[in-house]
Structures are given as structure tokens and as C-alpha cells.
Specification:
Layout lengths: L1 E8 L8 H8 L5 E8 L2 E6 L3 H12 L4 E6 L9 H8 L9
Antiparallel strand pairs: 1-3, 1-4, 2-3
Length: 97
């Protein structure tokens, strides 16, 4: 399983907020876990890669969301230990068995 960072911005109405994206991610079986790291960024644990994550995001939010999806394992920066633990030790939430 990999960890990916989804950063997003909703520039045109209808404005999409983080909770709406998280609710949608909870319905997608390829997303095994997530961590909301900021109002416009979500870490996801996925058994697939960037193309598959891009597809599920664009299938639902293509007209009103701008997003970038990157491999979080290549990340560096300032974050609390809980964020780094999530990135360095990806775990399923158990929702999808």
C-alpha cells in the first residue's frame, strides 16, 4: 500500500469542501485510510497508484475541483510526528476488510 497526498482547491461553484471529499473517499474501496492534514490536503492510503486515485476524484469532482496528487513517500517538510507515522507506516482503517 502507498500513501499519497491529495491537495485541492475548489475555485468555482459549487464549492467543494474537505468533508464532502472525505465522505466520498469513505465510499471508495481502493482508499484504505485517510488523514486530513490541512483544510486543503488529505493523505490517503491506497493499494493502487496515482492514476486510480485521479480517476475516482475526477469521476466525482471533475467540473468544480482542482487537485494535485503526489506520492507522499517522497515528501519532506515540517509536520508533526503523527503525520510522518501515517506516511511511514501505512495502515488500513479496516473498513474494507
Amino acid at each position: 500500500m502507498g500513501v499519497f497526498l491529495i491537495t485541492f482547491f475548489s475555485p468555482i461553484p459549487p464549492v467543494i469542501n474537505r468533508d464532502e471529499i472525505l465522505d466520498y473517499l469513505n465510499t471508495q474501496s481502493i482508499i484504505k485510510n485517510w488523514y486530513a492534514v490541512s483544510p486543503n490536503a488529505i493523505l490517503v492510503v491506497c493499494e493502487f497508484g496515482i492514476p486510480e486515485i485521479t480517476k475516482i476524484i475526477t469521476d466525482r469532482f471533475s467540473n468544480c475541483l482542482t487537485c494535485l496528487i503526489t506520492d507522499a513517500n517522497q515528501a519532506n517538510g515540517l509536520a508533526n510526528q503523527e503525520v510522518w507515522d501515517f506516511i511511514n507506516n501505512p495502515q488500513s482503517s479496516g473498513r474494507w476488510g
